[in-house]
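Reopening this ticket.

The earlier resolution said the output was attached, but the attachment link was broken on my side. Pasting everything inline this time so it's all in one place.
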Amino acid sequence: MCPDWAETEREIVGHLQTLIRFDTTNPPGNELPAARYLQEVLEREEIPTQVLESAPGRANVIARLAGDGTRRPLLLMSHLDVVPAEPDKWQHPPFDGDVVDGFIWGRGAIDTKNLTAVELVLLLQLKRDGVALKRDVIFAATADEEMGGSAGMGWLTEHHFDLVDAEYAINEGGGFGLDIGDKRAYVCQTAEKGVCWMRLTARGAPGHASTPKGDNPVVTLAQALSRLGQARLPMHVIPTVREFVRNVANLLPFPQSLLVPLVLSRPAEPLVAKALAKNETLGPLLAASIRNTATPTVLKAGSKTNVIPSVAEAQVDGRLIPGQTPDDLFREIRPYIGDKVDIELLGTSEPTESSYQTPFYEILRESLLAEDSKAVLIPFMIPGSTDGRFLAKRGVKVYGFFPMKQDVAESPLELAHGHNERISVANMGFAMRVLYGAVSKLCV
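Inline output:
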C-alpha cells in the first residue's frame, strides 16, 4: 500500500509547526510539553509510548512499534531541545513556525525538530499501513543534545539502554544534498569527531605594568595561541573520510578531480589545502576531517589595566578524529604552545565511526535513487558531535541521514544554529518518501 504522500506531507508540516512553537531552548530545555504532545499523538493511534524524565522537565519520549523479533530493532532518533535564538535578527519569529513562500521557519526546523516530525509520521504510517515488521521500530525524541546529552540520550543509554538498543539508528548530522556537475551528492554521516575541551594556563610574577618584565603570562599565552592558530597538526585518515574524498573527486571535473585526492597525501596536502581554501565549504571541511583541531575560543587575564597579572587562561575547543584520544591531542599541540603553558582537560567525548559497508547503507542508497535519479550517496564525518556517539560506542550502527535537496544558498550546517533557520515543505516530503522506503525495506 502506497501512502498518500500529499497528505503525509501536510501532516508532517503541521507537527513540525507545533513542535517549533514549544520553546525548548537549552538551557534550560524544558522539553516536557513537547514530549507530552508527541505522547498524545502516538497514543491516539495505539502505539505504546512513555515519557521518561531524567530531571524535572527534562523529558525523553520512547515509543515502539513491535515487529516479530526475527531481526534486531531500528532506532529513529532525534532531539527536542534547540539552541538559543535572537528574535530581532530573524526575518520571521523563531518560535512561531510560520510557513512563508514554501518554507517552515523556526528554531529547530533543521536541528532537529524536522527529523522528529518525519520520524513521528513515519512510525504512524508504518502502523496505518499494517507493515509486517521483522524488526521493532523504536522512536526516541530526547532532551539535552545541545548541551551534551547527559539529560537525554546519555542518560537513556546509562539507565535504560534496553529501550534504545538497536542494530541500526537513523540520526541527525547528514543527508543534505550538494549539486556537483550533473550529479547530486547526498552525505550520510557515518562518523563524528570527539570533543576535547581544554584550559591553557600561563603563569608569571605579577607587577606594575609601567615596568614590564619578560615573564608576563598574557604575552606568553598570546604567543602560544598565535602559534597554535597557525599549526598544522598531524594527519589521521579514517575510512569514512577516504571514501568521502574518493567520491567527491569522482564527481568533480578535471583538474579538480585529480587535485582533491591529494589532500590525503602528506607531502602534497599543504599546497592542496591552500588551493581548496577558496572553496569556503569544502576547504575547511576537508581540513577538519583529516586532523585533530584545537581552536582558542575564550580568553581570561587580569582585572586592572596597570597590573601585570600572575595568570592568563584560554579555553580551547579541541576535536578528535576517531581513534584519537585527549592525550594524543595534548602531545600534538605541545610543540606549538611550549613548556610554559599548562594543559588541563575540561571535558571530552569519544569520537566514533560506523561502517558504511552494511546492508542498510545500501538500502538508503537505493531508496534515495528511487526519489532522485541524480543521487550519489557519500559517507561523511561531521566535525562536531551528536547523540549518536552514546549509541555507536555500544555497537549500534548510527547513520546521520535526513535527505534534503539544495534549495537555499546557506548550507544546513550554517542554518542549524544561525539566524533564519528554515526548511522547505518540499524537502520535508522528500525526506519522508526516502526514509519510508528505506525503513520499509529494512524492516520487512
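Reporter confirms the inline version is readable. DSSP finds 15 helices and 19 strands in the chain. The mean pLDDT is 95.
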